[in-house]
Write a structure and sequence with these properties.
This protein is 41% helix and 16% strand. The protein is of the alpha+beta class. The protein has an 8-stranded mixed sheet with strand order 5-4-8-6-1-2-3-7, with no helix packed on it. A hairpin with a 2-residue loop joins strand 1 (84-93) and strand 2.
């Protein structure tokens, strides 16, 4: 290119050669940085591009897990522990119940959104079945009557209990104990009446075959039992059950399932009025 043509090219660019050169250098620098990062990452992944594409394989997974542990240890993302999980059943097969549940900790692997609870001969299963409309009406009526009766008994026993408390006038221990027992029985009657008015019927000792996909479920891990003749231990972080926050498959000590409420029936379409009939003359 001749000197005059070069001068014309520079003039067309506004004579701003340093700016153009700076842009070229910046683009080259970014490209080199990206290429260098890819080469380094590839070397750390064992030379496998697939290890870079898949986010939880190769040394990427090691780095991810190390970073997650570092954050958890720092307390910035403190790991929560839980002895129970709630979600929705997706499959029941043999003695296993597969269900979906939200992650307990935000840094947990996405695969933990699906869990498998294994039932053994010690697992207790409770099922709440949807009542029919007629059952709900009858139980609501009976429950209201029993609730009023229980509340009346509680009020009466409460007055008698005031005599047995500090500063009370009754000194007969046997009579006071009977009043306490009657009061507790009335409280239990009240709780039973309220449960009767629920739209679901409780089924104790249900079978695993009674559970179906779509039901709501709450599952508890293994129960932690206090050894006999031992001082009371502090409450574990996950309660009285083993921590299952990071267990994809575990043995359940308790399973509580509930049928999903039935969808309301679609309103009926009224029949079209009959067309008038004109007699034939």
């Amino acid at each position: 290119m001749s000197k005059r043509k070069l001068e014309k090219s520079v003039m067309r660019c506004g004579g701003n050669v340093p700016v153009v050169a700076s842009i070229i250098v910046l683009v080259a620098f970014i490209a080199g940085l990206l290429l260098g990062t890819l080469v380094v990452a590839k070397s750390y992944s064992g030379g496998s591009i697939s290890a870079l594409i898949s986010p939880m394989t190769g040394s990427f997974a090691d780095g991810y897990n190390a970073a997650k542990k570092k954050l958890a240890d720092s307390g910035f993302f403190g790991r929560q522990m839980t002895g129970s999980l709630s979600g929705q059943i997706t499959k029941v097969s043999g003695n296993e119940v597969t269900f979906t549940a939200p992650l307990v900790n935000p840094l947990d692997d996405e695969s933990l959104k699906t869990r498998i609870a294994v039932a053994d001969d010690k697992t207790t299963i409770t099922l709440y079945r949807q009542k029919t409309a007629d059952q709900i009406t009858a139980d609501q009526k009976a429950g209201q009557t029993e609730t009023a009766d229980a509340q009346s008994q509680i009020a009466s026993f409460q007055k008698q209990l005031n005599k047995c408390g500090p500063g009370g006038t009754s000194s007969n221990t046997a009579d006071c104990q009977k009043i306490y027992d009657d009061y507790n029985a009335a409280m239990q009657k009240l709780n039973d009446a309220r449960a009767l008015m629920d739209n679901f019927a409780k089924v104790d000792n249900a079978k695993l075959s009674d559970l179906q996909a779509g039901m709501q479920i709450t599952v508890y891990g293994a129960e932690i039992k206090q050894a006999a003749n031992q001082p009371a231990a502090p409450m574990p972080p996950a309660g009285n059950f083993t921590d299952i926050s990071e267990q994809a498959k575990f043995t359940a000590s308790q399973i509580i399932a509930r049928e999903m409420p039935a969808a309301p029936a679609a309103p009926g379409i009224p029949a079209a009025p009959a067309a008038p009939v004109t007699p034939v003359k």
